[in-house]
Amino acid sequence: MTKLKYKFTYDTLFKLLFVKYPNLLKRLIAAILKIPTDKISDFKITNPEIPPEAIGDKFCRLDINMVVSGRLVNLEVQVEDEGDYPERTLYHWARLYSSALRAGSPYSSLPQVIIISIVDFPIFDCAEYHSEFLPLEANRRELLSDRMLMLYFEVQKLPKDIDITNELELILSLFRAKTEEELKQLEELEVPIVTQAIGAYREIVVSPEFRELERLRADARHNEASALLNAQDQAEKAERRRWQTVVADKDAEIASKDAEIADKDAEIADKDAEIIGKDAEIARLRAQLEKQSS
């Protein structure tokens, strides 16, 4: 098995691929929203740029924002489970929704905001790879508003045997692929949309633009590692200095105690000498008394 150097879930690759080939993105969105591609009245990517200066930022989000037939759609891939992904997507929905209200416009003019997440880890305790969330009344299941739609696709849960008539599962299988062999198996299905996507993928990974982004990311990682190493070195030096100070203080304290003990020893020696002198004086006086008595 030849492991893919860059999977479809790789953030810079993901964004470049679908920005450079918007027809593929449109097909994916149409499959996700279950609408025919030709029924999409307008389709626009509103954040096509990948800011080079943001590539090294660990909090950089290479998501894709779109306007799809009047609806605001956000698409993101995520490969690492940081434990708070549902809350994170809810936060992004809230930001998109609140920023869509134009000054002076009524709340009823707010568009539907759809958050689409393609993730390479399990989120929900279910067998289905697709989960859809809406704001519903807890008992009656009455829809509060159609303005919120949260869609999650857990690619690890996709069926092993993909139905070649299911375009969504076919495209999502690309995000699950981890080896060259898996991509070749998908290519051998000879499904046009899959063949186009893999061809676009191969063009992107050798493109100068992608290589430059990877260079920037490598530089950022190197700088981050160097900064971390330097910070660790400084911390170790500070810790050594702290312990040296502690040891010096302890040595000074011990020296002070030793001097105090030496003073006490000298005082005891003086007392002993004084006692010896007293004993000698008592012995002399006793001898003198005995002589007088005799």
Uncertain residue segments: none
Termini gap: 120 Å
Strand content: 5-15%
- Biggest pleated-sheet summary: 6 strands, mixed
User: Can you tell me the overall shape?
Assistant: elongated
Lateral arrangement of strands in the main beta sheet? 1-2-3-4-6-5
Residue-averaged pLDDT? 90
Q: Please write the string of helix (H) and strand (E) elements.
A: HHEEEHEEEHHHH
Number of helices: 7
Can you give the helix content as a percent range? Answer: 40-55%
Radius of gyration: 38 Å
Total number of strands: 6
Structural class: alpha/beta
Walk me through this protein's architecture.
This protein is α/β, with parallel strands linked by helices and 294 residues long. It has a domain at 11-206. The protein contains 7 helices and 6 strands; from the N terminus they run ααβββαβββαααα. The protein has helices spanning 11-20, 22-33, 85-99, 167-176, 180-187, 192-205, 208-293, and strands at residues 43-45, 64-68, 71-78, 113-119, 130-133, 148-154. The chain has a 6-stranded mixed sheet, sandwiched between helices. Strand 3, helix 3 (85-99) and strand 4 (113-119) form a beta-alpha-beta unit. The model has no long low-confidence stretch (mean pLDDT 90).
Quick tags:
alpha/beta; six-stranded mixed beta sheet; 294 residues; single chain; elongated
